[in-house]
Each structure stands twice: as C-alpha cells, then as structure tokens.
Design a protein that fits this description.
CATH class: Alpha Beta
Shape: globular
CATH architecture: 2-Layer Sandwich
Distance between the termini: 36 Å
Largest sheet: 6 strands, mixed
Length: about 150
Amino acid sequence: MPRSSRGDSIAWKTEAIALARTLSEKKGEAVVILDIRKESPLADFLLVATVLSRPHMRTLEAALDEKAGSLGLRPLHRSRPASDRWQVLDFGSIIVHLMSEEARGFYAVEKLYPGSKRLRWEPRNIGGREKRDVLKRTSAALRLPSSTL
C-alpha cells in the first residue's frame, strides 16, 4: 500500500533526493528540491526540473515511476491530460513538477513557497568535471551564482 500521508520526514527527504538524482541522471535540468513543510499542509517536499522536450518529459516521468516503485511509492495523482509544457506527479509528501523552460520561467513555482529551504543534494556517481557541469547548468538555468548551490 503506498504511503499517502505525511509521515517520517527523514524518509521523505531521502526519497525526494533519490527522485531528484533520477531526474538528474536522465538529464533533467536545474533540478531543485524545496523543503515546504513549514509552508504547505499538503506536502513536505517539492521537486522541480526543467525538461527539454515532450519525449524528454515522458522519459523523466517513466524514470520517476520506476524509481518511485522501487522505493515503495506510487503516484497518488498526476496531471491529465498530459501537457507538453508541464506535468505534475503527486507522491503524497513529495510533489514533482516537470516543466519546460518557458513554463518554469512563466509560472515560477519555486516562488510560491518563499519561506522554503532549498535542499542541498548531489548527483551520484559522477566525477568532478561532470559534477561542476551539472552545478553550472543548474545555476545558469535558475540565474543564480554557482556559489549558492
């Protein structure tokens, strides 16, 4: 049975990081995890990732479904009909937004939770240069100095 209620925050944090790593491994860009526990009664963590195309969005969604299943999670809801620009997957205490660059810039979902904390996490199994490239792409996409990541 999938977990749907807010429970162990440490477990949800670990699972949010695992889902973020999955997005990063499949070339999701500017992957961000926000801790929204103090901001939202509905979820603990919000993940946002930029997708490059509709096929890329489908690939990321399938990878999330697979990874979530291995963690014992199942989407409680997903936005339908599927959009070419924005897809939402609700895993209970983790909500994932897959967005085109244009949609992400326009809707600025991260700004809906101004008091939230951005979680630090690192993609796994990548070396120094590749890690720098990921961080550089993330900071450029979010228009942040790389020192803030």
